[in-house]
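To whoever is on call:

I kicked off a structure prediction for a single chain this morning and the downstream step that reads the tokens threw a length-mismatch warning. I double-checked the sequence; it's 159 residues and nothing unusual in it as far as I can see. Pasting both halves so you can look.
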Amino acid sequence: MSLDDLRVPVLTAALVLGGLQAGTYYTWASGVMPGLGRVDDRTFVHAMQQMNVAIVNPVFLASFLGAPALAGAAVLATHGSARWWVVAGAGLAVATVVVTGALNVPLNDALAAAGPVDSIRDLAAVRADFESTWRRWNAVRTLTSTASVACLAVAALRS
């Protein structure tokens, strides 16, 4: 089996995993965070602390790490004009991981370090230090992951 034989399945898998990632960030941007924006500080901090723990699971991690890995593999299996679209898609998938790891995760860690919600003295300050910055970086990773999927889709159509 050659790399050319792997092009379609690898590109398809990269598209699916990238779509799952883009959908995750889009859901947070369009529904979860606006909904949490309507609750009191205690509920917001507690809910985010719980969700930040729950999201670190094998299913999420498979798509989170699999999307850029498979997009990278698709670069090797794709040629011609489609290859540049795969390169762009892979770069954007990697950018999504970088934004998450360098910006969103440290905010999640700081929220966890604030301690159990019942022992936090100033919930409003903890929320203020987290919410708007986290939402901004989530919007960036929503855009990078969505653009990655779009690039991979163009590549699939051209290959």
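Update from on-call: the warning came from a stale cache, not from the record. Cleared it. Sanity check on the structure: The chain has one domain: 3-158.
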